[in-house]
Specification:
The complex is a heterodimer of chains A (134) and B (401).
Chain A lengths: L4 H12 L3 H14 L21 E8 L2 E8 L2 H14 L4 H5 L3 H7 L8 H18 L1
Antiparallel strand pairs in A: 1-2
Helix pairs in contact in A: 1-3, 2-3, 3-6
Chain B lengths: L11 H8 L3 E2 L10 H13 L10 H20 L8 E4 L2 H11 L9 E5 L8 H10 L2 E5 L9 H7 L4 E7 L11 H10 L3 E5 L11 H4 L3 E5 L10 E5 L1 H4 L12 E4 L4 E3 L13 H15 L3 H20 L4 E3 L7 E6 L4 H10 L2 E2 L1 E3 L4 H6 L5 E5 L6 H18 L1
Parallel strand pairs in B: 1-13, 3-4, 3-5, 5-6, 6-7
Antiparallel strand pairs in B: 2-8, 7-8, 9-10, 11-12, 12-15, 14-15
Classes of the chains: A mainly alpha (134), B alpha/beta (401).
Amino acid sequence: MTLPVDAITALDTFQQAASWEQRARLLMQWGDRLPALSDVDKVDANRVHGCESQVWLVGTLQDGHWQFSASSDARLIRGLVALLLARVNGLSAVELQQVDLADWFSQLGLGRQLSQSRSNGLNAVLQRMRELAH
Amino acid sequence: MMIPSPWRADFPAIAALQRQDQTYLDNAATTQKPQALLDALAHYYANGAANVHRAQHLPGAHATQAFEDSRRKVAQWLNAGDCEQIIFTHGATSALNLLAYGLEHLFNPGDEIVISALEHHANLLPWQQLAHRRDLKLVILPLNGDGLIDLDVAAQLIGPRTRLLAVSQLSNVLGAWQPLPALLAMAKAHNALTVVDGAQGVVHGRHDVQALGCDFYVFSSHKLYGPDGLGVLFGRNEALQQLRPWQFGGEMVLDANYHDARFRSAPLGFEAGTPPIASVIGLGATLDYLTGLDQDAVSAHEAALHDYLLKGLEARNGIRLLGKPQLALASFVVEGVHNSDLAHLLTEQGIAVRAGHHCAMPLLKSFELAGAIRVSLALYNNSEDLERFFEALDQALELLR
């Protein structure tokens, strides 16, 4: 399976980061660049539960490819969510089932940064994506 | 100003954590253990484990002896008097559940259980669920601006329908002693049973359950530098007579037939199954260690550290404390900064503090917060730990702002 373009960019960028400060700055940049969700989308029905912070997720299917938008009220979580979106946007429902979250974040050099609770939260986001695509 | 801890070297994990660049400031969640406890566990397992209260053989007799010695030490630690009033459970949560089930028969629909707004889930949910089962009213005592239970309102809410009052001695979020003598007096004036959750309180200073005058006092071993999987329930003899067995099996039985059984009285009647023997013996060793310390020196050290923590937090812009912490811990939020972001960056820098709702969701919701950062202290912490925390906090805030 070939990676989406954004995912390749993410890998190039994050693999260069040498310190925790750099990684944190990059995460915040990626989070800040995430297109804002409209208030209409920030409703309970789109809330993903199981996250430390509030995360909202919506998805649309275009010609067999899924496009997700998401946001969070916490900046670093928003950055992590942006990296997840970079990995999954444009995939088909079948490809979505094959995404390995832990592997993706460890490729980015962020494996250690994912505490159990954070990784549970991101897993909950991925799980919701799969449900939407089901 | 340097505040060294003379007891730091007694806790080998602190040095191990330091080698991993970790500064441990999450002591209200659980504590590191003294060498004396590690030695006691190793000694017990290396010299012959055995079950207690049943075997006639020598290893069984040794284990039972050590187990019952620990019960005596716990009774002394709380000045409980009679050792039979000390019940070992599998944790503070389990002790509170034992009470909520074992006292259930005393409640009738419409009766009231009174707790406070600051209770953590362990002293909220067992009563909430009991109220659902028995159609009772759960009354919540509100807090004043300093994070203390409001006594004027309490005097209105504790009344003739109150059958039981269950309150924390020291909040795990607000770090303030609650006005127990006044609250217990109000409950007693209406013949209500009184339960004190000492999970945090027992760790700071010495407490005398007879002087306190509560019917039940609960704490967990692991927060008091002891092993986990073990809780303690003190119950006054008169109060224990009203408690019915909750869990069944093991040596809690006096006589069993296929269709009926009779059970022991306290404490064994409430210790169903094989108890956490090694943990009980280990707690005894921890209490021996703690008894050997100069309690005034420990309290003075903890007070100095807490003062240092508060001053450091107050010196920084935009920090808002939850309540008015008096000792042990401080919970705070930073204006314009999400607690999850701050927690993330503190973790990155090897600072082990707690972020989130601290198992007290309704309390955090009452502050209209989804979470807060909590720094909690133990006797082995020193001012360098706090300096590292402050440096990390400044770094994190610089990145986030």
